[in-house]
Amino acid sequence: MRRIVQSFEESKGMAMLKYVSRRIAISIIILVLISATVFIIFNYLPFDPARLSCGKHCTPEIIAGNRHRLGLDVNWWVQWWRFLEGIFAGRNYGEGAALIHCGAPAFGYSFTQHECVTTLLGQALPVTVSLAIGAFIMWLVLGVTLGVISARFRNTWIDRLSTVFVLVGTSLPTFISGLLLLLFIVLKFNLISPLDLGTWHSPLTDPWGWFSSYFWPWLSLALIYAATYTRFTRSNVIETSSEDFIRTARAKGVSERKVLWKHTLRPALAPILTIAGLDFAGLLGGAIITEQIFQLPGLGRLTLQAVLQDYDLPIIVATTTLAAAFVVIANLVVDLAYALLDPRIRIS
Amino acid sequence: MSQSPKRRAIAATLAIGVAAATALVTGLQSAQAAPAKGGTLYVITHQDQLDHADPQRIYTGRDIAFMESYVFRTLVMYKPVPGAAGTGLVPDLATNTGVATDNGKTWAFTLRPGTKYSDGSAIVCADVKYAISRTFATDVITGGPSYPMQYLDVPQDAKGNSTYAGPYKKTGQADYDKAVTCSPDNRTITFHLNVAKPDFNYAMSYPISSPVPAAKDTGDKMDLAPLSEGPYKVVSYKVKGEMDLVRNPNWSAATDMVRTNYPDKVILKFGVSEDVRDQIFLKDTQKTAINFDAMQLQNNISFWNSPASKTRGLNVFDPYTNYQAYNVSKGHLDCLDVRKALFFAYPYDAIIKLNGGSTLYGTPGDNVIKSNEGVDYAKTTSHINDKNFMSAGNPAYSKTLLATAKTSCPATYAKATSADQGITIDVSDTAAAKKVAAIVTPAMAAAGIVVKYNYIPSGSYYSTIQDITKQSDISGAGWGPDWANASTVIPPLFLKDGGFDLSQNWDDPAYPAFKALCDKANATLNRSAQAKLWQQAAEYAMAQYWVGEVAFTKQQLSWGSKVGGVDFWAPQGTFLFPSLYVKG
Q1: A295 and B286: CB-CB below 8 Å?
Q2: Between residues B350 and A311, the one the model is more confident about
Q3: Cβ separation A48–B467 shorter than 8 A
Q4: Of residues A52, A98, A197, nearest to B463 (C-beta)
Q5: In a designed cystine with B300, which of A55, A222, B295, B523 is the match (CB 3.0 to 4.6 A)?
């Protein structure tokens, strides 16, 4: 008997290990392909960053020199290979007294921001993570609470009020709600000095400064998501409430409070947490509009500037790959969690 | 007109001999109270960073004015006073404005004793020589002025490129060392030019002459951490953040006749959203701030309509002209009658009204040399001075011109009038440009002309239209002279090797005579005689309609109520930074 159990446990462990390995390998391939895709797209865009940074007295030779400096004088696959190499071995740019070294993991050097891209990512990431975490907590608390309340009090005035919130929240895009919030509340009532917008306060050294500077961006972002999550939660709770096991619980005389908290919410919230995880990962890639409105120097703004103003390929590739990595990792975590819960997934 | 964003990569330096007559100044307090010391001056901009902060790369008039007033010092500088007097040069690091010999082919500047960097080390001739050598390193020092490459007597290869590759590669170093020399006492720098250049000292008012010691050159990184010799030093510069300047303890007013250090700190705040920035100045919420940018149109109108806010504003003719460059190369607008037909059909009134009216936007112009440019400007006989010009557009006259073109140049006529072909206009892809298109298209249609728009992302606009293979029939552009001489306007805009010839006119039969005229003007040392030649060259180019609609544009500055000493620095086209202070 013992041997049989052990064998079963071993095969279960092996299956999980294989599954995890396969998913990680696929994730890495996806990221590599995404980075290659960005290089291909950039290569075929009708822009010439070498000419863009050339200045007024621009001869073909100077443009060619610029192209070499930017690393754009070779085919896209060579550029891409150098990018991959740099991640593991670091990269040098220029020569002589003008040599610049970016240590591994090097995602390139931005000649418009005069900094290694890894450093720029390191500066932008805490901003975006701060924004994403706060907004995530806020929208989950707000959305789930409202969703549960409106499901619990279905078809009452509370439910209708929540429906209004959902409609307003989902129909107001962030660039409107964020701007309204900023101009007519934050600045009008001097809740933040306009010159303090976008200033980084570390949560470790200045927690209140961090909280107060991020509260309004959190709210702006959370309102949209919370509205969607209210609807999700409401419909999931209502759907779960009509399941047989809930009816059984009620038939057994379990209190309504216990039915809701113990029997309904657990299954109802599981898919919501999955979606929330993916949404959170998406936000980590940069909440471009919110960052732009509130002047937060996060990944979104870094990407926007690189795309719209400078055609700064190293930044575009790095931020795109990083954003993709967040989503891929979140997917991986969700899939692994499901695999842990459901053996059929890892076996198939 | 508004679809042609002003060229950023030019310095806006010009003479305004008649500035007092043309500038419409509102709210300017010329009789300022005594400047106060102390406080923090905030300079607010929507831009995420300066185009460049490296002295040899900086080339935007506004940025030059800011950095030259606070951080850099140059051999010579524009006199920091308002009005026409501000266009004259004064010595800065040098003891005079330069000594020219050999009919302007050799220039010498002797450094003032006692000048220091912010770290306390002395400024010597070798540092200026090294700094200027950096401009030859076009693979690292990009985007800046190229005057040293153009004028210094350094050999060029068959393609016209310098044989000297700059101080990093050092190829051709000996050639450069011959062209630029330092005296044995390391105080006098001498420039040997390849051509007589009587106004070469104006080029030295640019930060290209700001010293850089070789040992402290950080190459590309210098754009984030420039050295300081001026009254302030950069203690922090973060893209999308701010540039913080504090007083430089090694700067002495005794060695600097030009600058001041009134505020304790100067903070250049980047990345402020346009809406927030405009609200700051509309409502005066940051009283010690100045606006580094122009406001958005509607907010600008509100600002100037409000008696409360407009006292904190300045409305002046800027150094720039906006214009439509007609591409006259074969297959484009290679027909004078068609070019004229396009010009006379243009609805000037509607476009100016769309952009805020003549009070805020500007007026129709007759010349690429602006009327406030002094001796080089003369009224032309074409464009708005033609008797057929109507500011609302004159489609009837355009039709007569097209009728002539039908026989004189049938291919271009067919292109202009055929729905299949049409005239393509390059514009920056902005909402404002689309509004302009909505007005221009029917106006042209009324004259029988078909126009189409090529919307180019604003970030790559100039790089696209400067590519002769990609430029369409008409391209909107803007230009301001680099200094007080039309040699920095006419040749750049209309000569093949000028650097910004969007007219592609070098195959036009009228070009050889024009080039000869420009060459003669460039070689003329007598300034009055030279001015006459530039006037003739401008008249000639305008009569060929190598450019179409021209606008003499205006600019509005705004600031907070606790900022004193505000004036317009005409040659730099922005605030007179050295006079600014924070009111007590």
Answers
A1: no
A2: B350
A3: yes
A4: A52
A5: B295
Domain boundary residue, one of A116, A143, A165: A116
Domain B47-270 top-level CATH class? alpha beta
pLDDT for the residue numbered A345: 60
**Does residue A257 sit at the B interface (CB-CB below 8 Å)?**
no
Q: What is the pLDDT of residues B335-378, one digit of tens each?
A: 999 999 999 999 999 999 999 999 999 999 999 999 877 789 99
Residues of chain B contacting residue A68, judged by C-beta atoms under 8 Å apart:
139
Question: Which of A54, A95, A295 minimises the CB distance to B168?
Answer: A95
Task: Please check whether residues A139 and A83 belong to one and the same domain.
Answer: no
Q: Is A197 on the interface with B (CB under 8 A)?
A: yes
In a shared domain, residues A171 and A95:
no
Identify from A73, A110, A114 which residue to disrupt to test chain B contact, counting B C-beta atoms within 10 A and taking the largest count: A114
Number of domains in chain A: 2
Q: Is B221 exposed, middle or buried (0-12, 13-18, 19+ CB in 10 A)?
A: middle
List chain A residues with CB under 8 Å of B499.
56-58
Nearest to A100 among B161, B220, B457 (CB): B220
What's the CATH number where A238 sits?
A: 1.10.3720.10
Confidence at residue A7, expressed as pLDDT on a 0 to 100 scale: 59
Q: Are residues A221 and A276 in the same domain?
A: yes
Residue A59: its chain B contacts at CB < 8 A? 159-161
Q: How far apart are CA B388 and CA B337, in angstroms?
A: 14
> Are A138 and A165 found together in one domain?
yes
Determine contact, residues A170/A228, Cβ cutoff 8 Å: yes
Q: Which residues pair with B107 in a beta bridge?
A: B100, B191
pTM of the model: 0.84
The stretches of B285-394 forming alpha helices (DSSP H) are 297-305, 336-344, 348-354, 357-360
Domain's final residue, options A58, A89, A116: A116
**Residue B513: pLDDT band by 50, 70, 90 thresholds?**
very high
A162 and A273 inside one domain: yes
User: Which domain covers residue A26, as residue numbers?
Assistant: 2-116
Instruction: Please report, for residues A142, A255, A326, A337, the alpha-carbon distance to residue A149 in angstroms, rounded to integers and kept in the order given.
Output: 11, 17, 32, 28
Model confidence band, residue B31 (pLDDT cutoffs 50, 70, 90): very low
Q: Are residues A236 and A341 in the same domain?
A: yes
- A194:B276 CB<8 A: yes
* Residue A255 to chain B, least CA–CA distance (Å): 54
Q: What is the pLDDT of residues A99-157, one digit of tens each?
A: 889 998 999 898 888 899 999 999 999 999 999 999 999 999 999 999 999 998 888 99
**pLDDT 10s digits, B179-222:** 999 999 999 999 999 988 888 999 999 999 999 999 999 999 99
Nearest CA in chain A to B144: A55
> Domain boundaries in chain B?
47-270
A304/B contact by beta carbon, under 8 A: no
Residue from B168, B171, B178 nearest B137 by CA: B168
Are both A229 and A186 inside the same structural domain?
A: yes
* Chain length of chain B: 584
